[in-house]
Amino acid sequence: MIRIRDLHKSYHHGGGDVHALRGVDLDVAPGQLTVLTGRSGAGKSTLLSLVAGLRRADRGEIEVDGRSVTAADEGELVALRRTTVGVVYQDFALLPLLTAEENVGLPLRITRTDPAERDALVAELLDRVGLAAHAGQRPDEMSGGQQQRVAIARALAIRPTVLLADEPTAQLDSETGAQVMDLLRTLVAEQGTTAIVATHDPAVEGYADTVVHLDDGTLTPAAVAGG
Ligand SMILES: Nc1ncnc2c1ncn2[C@@H]1O[C@H](COP(=O)(O)OP(=O)(O)OP(=O)(O)O)[C@@H](O)[C@H]1O
Q: For this UniProt entry, which residues form the secretion signal (predicted)?
C-alpha cells in the first residue's frame, strides 16, 4: 500500500527554484498497478525517488505499508529499500561484470540471506522471468529486454511489497516493451505488489489499473484502463 498526501518538492539551482511537486495526493492498493504519465520534466522521477526514500520531501506525507517514509531516519530508509521497496530503472542499472544470477542475487548478499536459500530464490526468479537458460551470462551478452527482465528479477529478490519502475520500456522496442509490461503486470497481480510505473509511453497505459497524469507538479486522474 502506498499513501501520499500533499507532497511538495522543490529543487534549488542556479538563479531559481524548480517546484517539481506541488501538493500531490495518491493512493495505490496492493495488487494494483498505477501508471504515472506526464511530459519530460513533469516530476515523475522525483515522485518515485521520494517514495523510495532516495530523496527527501519538503512537505507532505508518504506511507508505505502503514510506515512513514517521510518521517523515517536514514537507517530506516536503508532498511526500507533492503526489505520493502524494489526499483526498476530505464537503463536497467545492472552491474556489468556480474552474471544475470549474480546481479539478481546481489540484494540477497547485502541482506546476508543464507546462500542456499539465496541460490534457490535466484533460480526461481530467473525462471519466472524466462531467463533460466541465461543465468551465467553477463549484461553485455543479453538483449535489452533480457537485461530489463534481469533487473525486474533483481528488484523482486527482496520480495518487495512495493515496486517502482521508472520508464522501464524506454530503451526497448515496442514488442519487447509489451513483453516486459505483461510480465510486470502478471507479477504484480500474482504477488499482490503495490506498483507505480512512470512512463511517457502511451502503450504502457494499457497495462494499468489506474492512470494518473502529472502536470505542473500536480496529479490528475487520467483514465481507468481496461486491461
Ligand atoms: N537534482 C535536481 N536538481 C535540480 N533540478 C532537478 C533535479 N532533478 C530534477 N530536477 C528538475 O525537476 C523537474 C522534474 O524532474 P523529474 O526528473 O522528476 O521529471 P520526469 O517527469 O521524471 O522527467 P523525465 O521523463 O524527463 O525523466 C524538472 O524541471 C527537472 O529539471
A: none
Residue nearest to atom 17 of ligand 1 (CA): 45
Task: Annotate 103-125 with DSSP letters as a single string.
Answer: HHHHHHHHTT--HHHHHHHHHHH
Q: Tell me how far apart the alpha carbons of residues 137 and 157 are, in angstroms, rounded to a whole number.
A: 18
CB 88 within 8 Å of CB 166: yes
Predicted-complex ipTM score: 0.94
Same domain, 14 and 78: yes
CB contact at 8 A, 194 and 163: yes
Among 11, 204, 218, residue to substitute to test ligand 1 (most atoms within 8 Å of Cβ): 11
Give the distance (Å) from ligand 1 centre to CA of residue 178: 26
- Nearest protein CA to atom 5 of ligand 1, as residue: 11
pTM value is 0.92
Q: Quick one: cell of 184? A: 510486470
pLDDT at site 224 = 47
pLDDT for the residue 194: 96
Residue of minimum CA distance from atom 25 in ligand 1: 40
Residues 171-178: what's their mean pLDDT? 90
Tens-place pLDDT, residues 37-74: 999 889 999 999 999 999 999 999 999 999 999 999 99
Q: Which domain holds residue 184?
A: 1-84+161-227
